[in-house]
Amino acid sequence: MTLRPIPPLDRADLVLCDFDGTISAIDTGLLVAQSFDFGRFDEIEQCWRRGEIPSWQCLQDQWHLVDTSRTDFWELIANLEVDPGFAGLVELIRTRGARLVVLSDGLDLYIRQTFDRLGLSDVEFRANRAVLRDGHIVTEFPHLDDRCTDCGNCKTRALFELRPGYARTIYIGDGFSDACAAGYADLVFARDDLARLCRERGQESVPFRRLDDVATALENGLPVTR
Description:
CATH superfamily of the domain at 3-26 and 82-129 and 142-225: HAD superfamily/HAD-like
Largest sheet: 7 strands, mixed
Strand content: 15-25%
Low-confidence stretches: none
Helix content: 25-40%
Structural class: alpha/beta
Shape: globular
Number of helices: 10
């Protein structure tokens, strides 16, 4: 076992970060399913988990069930719990001159609202689009990739589009939608399902509990077990 240092963050770095379950305390779709009875949410989820439908269709079908006339739904969206270390991580990235892009296979509807609430409306992000129509949420997929048969927002496509000109690509995530893109990153911070998937394919990743752990590692260049 050796200890390999992480070079501290600098302007040659591109930082890509997941939203649901990484910046937000819990996946927003899961939170909505737990908070309301909007019909076939779980049934659709299980179809996806069995591989019967792709992720984008699961997302589309689940969010279409949401009754947007309910004020308690909008109250939930307006008060999403966020990792308390996120603002500090954003500040570190900006101070060091690096670039941050949030990549989400969720919806712009709640990401934009959350960033506005935090005073971080200028944080760059790519997500699926939510359109309100006839009391429902219609999803659109501007970042779909024909070569990807699962995700609505292909994070791997985003990584390859964004990283030219940067010496190092850093990925931060927690779930299945992060696994493909993380496989092409130079440095991965992972927890939960992403950490397990990295272990299964033999890819090194740095464990973290909260985003201030990530900020500390990138600020000070902490050693990593290899």
